[in-house]
Write a structure and sequence with these properties.
alpha+beta; PH-domain like; 4-stranded mixed β-sheet; 356 residues
């Protein structure tokens, strides 16, 4: 039986990878091998055909624009200008295109891939990043929380806070009452570490309380004034912030921020802004609804353990709801930005409120 003749294809330019001189050739396929037959130039005979086995040829993907470029062994290349003729010849005689390349040629497949990519990205942002952040934080020693929290607190003080105007006796009273309530909630010890700081904040922050990683809890004079005569509620707000400390929500939010920025840096090749913005960002971060529920549970635990009704916390949300939206400015981390929604108010008013 006679061997199958070469399947002639389009014209191409051959570059041997050593010089810029192009050699006109005619492509062909024979037994799975790619053949480039040099075309005879005027006054000279055609040279011997060049051959490459399948594993030495990198075939190009089919695209809408541009010429076809085949990469060969030792840096050689074949350039084909007539893309339509090349695509027809390859479809009949060349290696089969991969399913990805075929899918790219169909708008429905491309649209489905784009939707799937967006869905995966949204799922990763919603569930993957928080899970990864919790895993990272679990590996960090508490000393890291303390160092990060101290830096973030300095940033907040320089931007939003002023020295407190609360009398020293009032500060001591609140510190003693909160310490006693926390001790009752953890009678066997093991309560999260904390340090209370009182500061005046003015219109830039207003009535607020917020916690830094490591246990620094800031309470503004304006919040003390807002809850004047309702120390049970004020202690509940402090306990809520202690819940953020216990569950390391600040570090988890920071880890999520770092993971997302690292992913962006990998994609865009720029890590320069990450370290520069961390301290200021720590002062402005928000918490997820799940984190708020966990912190609410700690507030209920402390209030119940100290003989105070968790329903006292509902007053806090009512007082905030009475204020104009423009009065509640400052970092989203602050309790003033937390929604006083019906779910949380129902939770604190429930006589059976406790750890969830």
């Amino acid at each position: 039986m006679n061997p199958e003749p070469p399947k002639a294809g389009p014209a191409a330019l051959y570059f041997d990878g050593h010089s810029a001189r192009a050699c006109p050739v005619r492509l062909a396929m024979e037994g799975g091998w790619l053949i480039a037959q040099p075309l005879a130039e005027e006054g000279s005979a055609a040279g011997a055909p060049l051959r490459w086995p399948p594993d030495e040829v990198q075939w190009p993907e089919r695209t809408r624009h541009g010429q076809r470029l085949l990469h060969l062994a030792a840096g050689a290349q074949l350039q084909v200008a007539d893309t339509a003729a090349f695509d027809r010849w390859r479809a009949q005689h060349g290696p089969r295109e991969g399913w990805v390349v075929r899918a790219q040629q169909r708008w429905r497949s491309t649209l489905a891939a784009a939707v799937l990519l967006l869905a995966l990205g949204a799922a990763g942002y919603q569930w993957g990043v928080p899970l990864a952040a919790r895993a990272v934080v679990a590996l960090l020693p508490p000393a890291v929380d303390t160092a990060v929290g101290a830096q973030a607190l300095d940033s907040v003080r320089s931007r939003w806070l002023r020295p407190t105007k609360l009398p020293a006796a009032r500060q001591a009273e609140l510190r003693a009452a909160f310490a006693a309530a926390v001790a009752l909630a953890w009678p066997a010890g093991g309560a999260p570490p904390f340090t209370l700081h009182f500061h005046a904040a003015g219109a830039d922050l207003g009535p607020n309380a917020f916690a830094m990683p490591g246990g620094d809890i800031v309470v503004t004079d304006e919040l003390v004034e807002l809850l004047q005569g309702h120390d049970d509620t004020l202690l509940g707000v402090m306990a809520h912030e202690l819940g953020h400390v216990q569950h390391r929500h600040g570090m988890q939010a920071l880890a999520q921020f770092a993971l997302l920025n690292t992913a962006t840096g990998v994609a865009l090749g720029d890590f320069s802004g990450l370290l520069a913005v961390l301290p200021a960002w720590m002062a402005q971060m928000g918490y997820s609804r799940d984190a708020e529920r966990q912190a609410d549970a700690v507030a209920a635990r402390v209030l119940r353990a100290s003989g105070r009704p968790p329903a006292a916390m509902a007053l806090f949300f009512e007082r905030l709801a009475q204020r104009r939206p423009g009065d509640l400015r400052g970092p989203p981390m602050a309790l003033a930005s937390h929604p006083a929604d019906d779910e949380r108010m129902r939770y604190f008013r429930d006589p059976g409120a406790g750890l969830r």
